[in-house]
Design a protein that fits this description.
Blueprint (H helix, E strand, L loop, with lengths): L17 H16 L4 E5 L4 H9 L31 E7 L5 E2 L4 H10 L3 E2 L11 E3 L13
Antiparallel strand pairs: 1-2, 2-3, 2-5, 4-5
């Protein structure tokens, strides 16, 4: 889908838990009322995608972006036994349509929490401002293995 047909990249909600989809869409609407625009950059990830991200800054050049290796420590982006992912990542869109990682993250965090989401920016050991997920009360017991 091109951006003009799916400006928030909602296609990345495919495979996410229905409650996560509902809350993220409501969050996007709330941010738009504040004059802010986000796009989804990540939704459900395969084990291979998660392992590739885990390798950044460890085995491949780049900055460390996750502490979840996809096998021993599973990401909430990965499908659980119910087949759904429980997390998304977002970025900001400027008035000119550019995607940026610079934006009012604290506003995102406050609104995400108000919409019943966990905001990774509040994590003490590994703050992850672009990360949003369902609270633990929605957690499926284990990861589906392919």
């Amino acid at each position: 889908m091109t951006d003009h047909l799916d400006p928030h990249r909602l296609v990345r909600l495919r495979g996410c838990h229905p409650e996560l989809r509902t809350r993220v869409v409501a969050l996007i609407d709330a941010l738009e009322r504040e004059g802010l625009d986000i796009v989804l950059t990540q939704g459900v990830r395969s084990v291979a995608q998660q392992q590739s991200l885990y390798a950044l800054g460890r085995f491949k050049p780049g900055k460390i972006v996750t502490n979840c290796d996809g096998l021993v420590r599973v990401s909430n982006h990965q499908p659980k036994l119910d087949g759904y992912g429980y997390a998304v990542d977002v970025a900001w869109r400027t008035a000119h349509g550019d995607i940026t990682w610079e934006g009012p993250w604290s506003t995102l965090g406050q609104l995400a929490i108000a919409h019943g989401l966990v905001w990774g920016g509040n994590w003490l050991n590994f703050p992850d401002r672009p990360h949003l997920e369902l609270p633990p009360s929605f957690a499926a017991p284990t990861v589906a293995r392919a």
